[in-house]
Amino acid sequence: MIKLNLFIKESGNKHAARMIVFLHGGGVSGWMWNKQIPFFEDDYCLVPDLPGHGRSPGQPPFSIGRTAEHINEIISATADGREIVVLGFSLGAQILVEMMSQRPQLIDYAIVNSALLRPMPAALKLIEPSVRISYPLTRYRWFSKWQASTLYVNREDFEQYYSESLDMNREMLVSVLKENMSYSISQSIKDSSTKLLVTVGEKERGIVKKSAQDLVKLCDRGHGIMFPGVGHGIPLADPARFNRVVDNWLSTGAIPEDARPLSY
Question: What Cα–Cα distance (Å) separates residue 82 from each residue in 14, 20, 58, 106, 107?
Answer without folding.
Answer: 10, 10, 30, 11, 10
